[in-house]
């Protein structure tokens, strides 16, 4: 699904985000957008949000689907005091400094 001209900037990483995500963030340092589509337990969502947040650039986004399965998305947005929007079970948190 990734267009040929973009494949050099794309890499599929399979595995548990609790081990893969910290290593990836160490390598790439900063990101513009993080899309949570993995395990939807409160604990796992909070782990991903808290792990990725320091690496999100100014005006970057965390996007998550199925945000109403638990309160992790809203709790995290409040914890970091950031703007967020929700629609059709999807949430977006914008990082401002």
Spans of at least 5 consecutive residues whose pLDDT stays below 50 are: none
Strand order of the largest sheet: 1-2-4-3
Rounded to an integer, what's the Rg over CA atoms?
Answer: 14 Å
Distance between the termini: 34 Å
Mean pLDDT: 91
- Helix/strand structural class: alpha+beta
Give the strand content.
Answer: 15-25%
Question: Which sequence of SSEs, written as H and E, runs from N to C?
Answer: HEHEHEE
Shape: globular
- What is the makeup of the main sheet? 4 strands, mixed
Secondary structure: number of strands? 4
Q: Into which percent range does the helicity of residues fall?
A: 25-40%
Instruction: Report the total helices.
Output: 3
Layout of secondary structure:
Elements: H1 17-28, E1 31-36, H2 42-52, E2 56-64, H3 72-79, E3 84-87, E4 90-94
Parallel strand pairs: 1-2
Antiparallel strand pairs: 2-4, 3-4
Helix pairs in contact: 1-2
Key attributes of the depicted protein:
97 residues, globular, four-stranded mixed β-sheet, 4 strands, alpha+beta
Give a brief rundown of this model.
The protein has three helices and four strands. The chain is α+β, with helices and mostly antiparallel strands and 97 residues long.
């Amino acid at each position: 699904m990734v267009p040929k001209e973009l494949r050099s900037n794309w890499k599929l990483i399979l595995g548990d985000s609790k081990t893969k995500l910290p290593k990836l963030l160490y390598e790439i340092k900063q990101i513009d957008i993080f899309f949570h589509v993995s395990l939807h337990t409160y604990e796992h969502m909070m782990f991903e949000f808290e792990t990725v947040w320091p690496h999100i650039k100014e005006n970057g986004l965390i996007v998550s689907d199925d945000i109403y399965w638990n309160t992790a998305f809203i709790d995290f947005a409040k914890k970091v005091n950031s703007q967020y929007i929700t629609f059709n079970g999807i949430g977006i948190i914008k990082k401002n400094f």
